[in-house]
Design a protein that fits this description.
The chain has about 120 residues and is mostly helical. The chain has a domain at about 40-115. The chain has helices at about 10-25, 45, 50-55, 65-80, 90-95, 100-110. The protein is elongated, with a radius of gyration of 27 Å. The termini are far apart. The relative contact order is 0.11.
């Protein structure tokens, strides 16, 4: 004869399980980030084409840029259809290409003088 109980586990047996799960999930609170300084990344080769754009000094200086101008730049970039490319495009290439991906649009937004 097989007996089936409504309470297959007693509370005394569940407490170690609950305590173990709480301890397991609380370990993430004590984790530290593992940011390491490295000499190169896999993306360095892709970014060699746009590094001159990223290293140029902004001609705006500390002057503020109006929100209307930023919205105009974003509207222009949103009008460009999405198309993936394996290499980062320069702002000029984004401006004249029929398609661009998020990386190219971000670089073009970073260098708004090329979009004007």
């Amino acid at each position: 004869m097989v007996l089936i109980s409504i309470h297959p586990f007693t509370a005394r047996k569940l407490w170690p399980l609950i305590l173990g799960l709480v301890c397991l999930f609380s370990f993430a609170c004590f984790a530290e980030s593992a940011y390491l300084s490295v000499n190169s990344t896999p993306y360095d080769r892709q970014m060699t084409r746009i590094s001159p754009v990223l290293l140029t000094k902004s001609d705006a200086g500390n002057q503020g840029v109006s929100l209307a101008l930023v919205n105009h730049w974003i509207e222009d970039l949103r009008a460009i259809p999405y198309g993936f490319s394996t290499e980062w495009k320069t702002p000029e290439e984004v401006e004249f290409a029929p398609v661009a991906d998020c990386k190219g649009k971000a670089v073009a937004l970073y260098q708004p003088s090329a979009r004007s």
